[in-house]
Design brief:
This protein is mainly α. It folds into two domains: about 70 residues, lambda repressor-like DNA-binding domains (434 Repressor (Amino-terminal Domain), Orthogonal Bundle); about 60 residues. The protein contains seven helices and two strands. A two-stranded antiparallel ribbon has the order 1-2. The protein is rod-shaped, with a radius of gyration of 41 Å. It starts with a strand and ends with a helix.
């Protein structure tokens, strides 16, 4: 891979940022990135600038923000990565599902409460009917009705 020649167009600020990323051991960095030591030296002197492919290798190796490397401007992000944004969207989706399930549970609980109230009323009605039947039986009115 060849470097893109930008003689005297590579300003000192870019060169300094590139040196920060490369660090003191240019030979070790060259080995890690898979680029010749001479290419690294020309970048650090501001004679050449890394090609797009080389910049991608540098980013993969170091995690450097390429926008910062080229422009000196760090991009402020609310979320550090797309995966964080995806996680947030998933969490919001889960929260909506949980809220929906909670509403269903609340409706079912109201139904259960209503059934319990109905059961109590039926028990009270049965007790009242039994009480009347015994009262009628005790007074002999049942024999009169049947006979």
């Amino acid at each position: 891979m060849s470097s893109t020649k930008t003689k005297k167009l590579v300003n000192n600020e870019i060169t300094e940022r590139l040196k920060q990323v490369i660090g003191k051991d240019k030979k070790e960095f060259a080995l890690k990135v898979g680029i010749s030591y001479e290419a690294i030296r020309t970048w650090c002197k501001g004679i050449y600038f890394p090609s797009g492919d080389q910049l991608i290798k540098i980013k993969e190796l170091t995690g450097v923000d390429l926008n910062w490397l080229v422009t000196g401007i760090k991009e402020e992000k609310v979320f550090p990565s797309e995966s964080s944004q995806e996680i947030l969207m998933l969490l919001q989706s889960f929260q909506k599902q949980i809220d929906g399930l909670q509403r269903q549970i609340d409706v079912q609980l109201v139904g259960i409460k209503s059934l319990e109230d109905s059961k109590k009323q039926i028990k009270a009605d049965v007790a009242s009917i039994n009480s009347r039947l015994f009262a009628v039986a005790d007074t002999g009115e049942l024999k009169k009705l049947m006979g």
